[in-house]
């Protein structure tokens, strides 16, 4: 009898990091980079609008991040929800195809990158210590607050009508489709409260999702996620789920990150991932970013080595970071 060897989810991350040279580079802001290239995201679907209007641009931005040294690229499904598509008159079936398309575009970018790298079109050694390092495609699942399109992924206040069960119902089919899309893992991003983290752990278990996942929280300060729930408690929920291979922070001001890493470490030994935004604040009414007063976070690349020493092993950027940010992070991590 031949026994199928099934890797424990945590060993997938350990092996991935080893092959990347102990730490990995994540990509940078996808939506804001699409905007920088002229996409208009002033729409309830935000970046998912580009799945309909400009898939070629999504592929190009993925490629730019790979060329900058990213080991993981995150698909354009952050705000792609079946409910959001339905509100636009897009059928459930077409919506599911769009979710699959977001992963397909990222996989295509990876194939193009590999082909160009193998032909020497790009000097891979300029951005990668380990030329044979793997590249993962992460399927993004933005929070319920992202779908609401009112910026509530930065408040975590979903109201009394939203329960554990309603969150599970909201996300269930999307998670199922993305889990079977060919992605290497699911990136649950910008999670603003404990309730949604709990909903994701239950969904992963109930649906028997076979690919691993990471949980990444949006935080309001150095100790708490956006809703005010302690990050330590949120990380403990992630820690309780075997399928989760990384826990971290995204779309959060860089100035809070160091303390957040220390708090996460108290709750879990899973890999810690960090991809902050530029430190600016998002105005959901105008869908624009405004400078935060009295703080300067812009050049967070200078903190990256300290975050690595503090225990983060995957670092990248979120909104308003660019391929240049990722190139600089890649350089900072490769000098370890
Ligand atoms: C991470 S936020 C900048 C995404 C956009 C937001 N959900 C909106 O629709 O306004
Ligand atoms: N992966 C998403 C996160 C938005 S907070 C993006 O970069 O657009
Ligand atoms: Zn972001």
TrEMBL record:
Residues where Zn(2+) binds: 251, 318-319
GO molecular function, one term: metal ion binding
Entries under PROSITE patterns matching the protein: HCY
UniProt keyword annotations, A-Z: Metal-binding, Methyltransferase, Transferase, Zinc
Hcy-binding domain mapped to chain residues: 12-333
Cofactor(s), names only, from the UniProt record: Zn(2+)
Biological process according to GO: methionine biosynthetic process; methylation; S-methylmethionine cycle
Keyword Zinc carried by entry: yes
UniProt entry tagged with the keyword Repeat: no
Transmembrane parts of this sequence: none
Top-rank taxon: Eukaryota
NCBIfam families, alphabetized: PRK09485.1 (NF007020)
Protein name: Hcy-binding domain-containing protein
Source organism: Salvia splendens (Scarlet sage)
């Amino acid at each position: 009898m031949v026994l199928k060897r099934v890797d424990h989810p945590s060993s997938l991350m350990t092996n991935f990091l080893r092959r990347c040279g102990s730490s990995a580079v994540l990509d940078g802001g996808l939506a804001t980079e699409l905007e920088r290239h002229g996409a208009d995201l002033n729409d309830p679907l935000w970046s998912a609008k580009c799945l309909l209007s400009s898939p070629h641009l999504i592929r190009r931005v993925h490629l730019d991040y790979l060329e900058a040294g990213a080991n993981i690229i995150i698909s354009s499904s952050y705000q792609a929800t079946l409910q959001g598509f339905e509100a636009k008159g897009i059928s459930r079936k077409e919506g599911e195809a769009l979710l699959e398309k977001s992963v397909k575009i990222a996989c295509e970018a990876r194939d193009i990158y590999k082909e160009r790298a193998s032909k020497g079109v790009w000097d891979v050694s300029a951005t990668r210590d380990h030329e044979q390092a793997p590249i993962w495609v992460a399927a993004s699942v933005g929070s319920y607050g992202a779908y609401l399109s009112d910026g509530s992924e930065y408040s975590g206040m979903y109201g009394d009508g939203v329960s554990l069960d309603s969150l599970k119902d909201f996300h269930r089919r999307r998670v199922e489709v993305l889990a079977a899309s060919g992605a290497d893992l699911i990136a649950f991003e910008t999670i603003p409260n404990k309730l949604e983290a709990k909903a994701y752990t239950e969904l992963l278990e109930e649906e028997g999702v076979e690919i691993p996942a990471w949980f990444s929280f949006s935080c309001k300060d150095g100790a708490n996620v956006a809703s005010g729930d302690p990050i330590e408690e949120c990380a403990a929920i992630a820690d309780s789920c075997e399928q989760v291979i990384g826990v971290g922070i995204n779309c959060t001001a860089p100035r809070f990150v160091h303390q957040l890493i220390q708090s996460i470490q108290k709750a879990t030994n899973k890999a810690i991932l960090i991809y902050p935004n530029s430190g600016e604040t998002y105005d959901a009414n105008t869908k624009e970013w405004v400078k935060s007063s009295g703080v300067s976070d812009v050049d967070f690349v200078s903190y990256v080595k300290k975050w690595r020493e503090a225990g983060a092993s995957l670092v990248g950027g979120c909104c308003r970071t660019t391929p240049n940010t990722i190139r600089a992070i890649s350089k900072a991590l490769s000098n370890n």
